[in-house]
Write a structure and sequence with these properties.
Blueprint lengths: L4 E2 L14 E7 L3 E12 L2 E10 L2 E2 L3 E4 L3 E7 L1 H7 L9 H4 L12 H20 L1
Antiparallel strand pairs: 1-5, 2-3, 2-7, 3-4, 4-5, 4-6
């Protein structure tokens, strides 16, 4: 397992992804993750560790108990690379929360203005008190 493994971009980018067993995994039939999988033991129980491919990198491992796995479709590195999530909103919130900053999109102008309004309102209320 790795913290983050950067994959170089070339003619066949999937070839730069580290060797291992890759799969498309469905959890509880609602969440789909794509990446390198391994079976590990944690806390006295067998679990699946999946390093999700996102933004050309393998993310830190995420662990799931066997009962959470609805379907696991083993696939090639190439298929995993081609099926990786392309946008942060496609990832579950718990995984988005730990994305490295360089993989997050820049905030939009509307989000920045909304945040400025929110903080400036609080500041004005404190000054009036």
């Amino acid at each position: 397992m790795t913290d983050e493994t950067e994959c170089s971009v070339d003619q066949n980018p999937w070839e730069s992804v580290p060797d291992g067993e890759y799969a498309i995994v469905e959890l509880f039939g609602h969440t789909t993750l794509v990446g390198r999988v391994t079976e590990i033991e944690r806390f006295g129980a067998k679990m699946m560790a999946i390093e999700i491919i996102f933004g050309g990198k393998l993310l830190v491992p995420v662990y799931h108990g066997g009962a959470a796995i609805y379907r696991m479709s083993p696939c090639s590195r190439r298929t995993a690379w081609e099926r990786q999530h392309k946008e942060p909103w496609q990832l579950p919130p718990a995984i988005r929360a730990v994305l490295p900053p360089e993989l997050l999109p820049a905030p939009s102008v509307a989000e920045a203005a909304r945040d400025d309004d929110y903080f400036s309102t609080d500041d004005r209320e404190e000054e009036d008190a």
